[in-house]
Amino acid sequence: MIAKLKGPIFGPYYCSNCRIKQPDELKSNCAFCGNWFSNYEDILIAEDAERFIINMKESEKRNESNIS
User: Where are the domains of the chain?
Assistant: First the structure.
C-alpha cells in the first residue's frame, strides 16, 4: 500500500493511513503499518531547501555584523 507523510515542514510528520507519528529521522515507509510514502523524496527536498535558506540568512547576519 501507499500512504503520504502529513504535517508541517520540520514538524512531527504522521502517516496518512494509520495516523501514527513518525520518528524524527524519516524513513521511506511507515514505522507502524509499513506503507510506503509517495511524497518521501519531496519532503526531504523541501527540508533541505528550508535549511539552506535559514543558513543563508544566518550567514548574511554574521557578515554584516563584522563591518567596522
Answer: 2-65
Q: In this structure, are residues 22 and 10 in contact, taking their beta carbons and an 8 Å threshold? A: no
Q: Counting every residue, how long is the chain?
A: 68
Q: Which DSSP string corresponds to 13-26?
A: -EETTT-PBPPSS-
**Mean pLDDT throughout 31-43?**
95
Residues 6+ apart with CB under 8 A from 61: none
What mean pLDDT is predicted for residues 31-56?
A: 91
State CA 8 to chain mean position distance: 8
pTM of this prediction? 0.72
pLDDT band at residue 8 using 50, 70 and 90 as cut-offs = confident
Angle made by CA atoms 19, 23, 27, in degrees to the nearest 5: 90
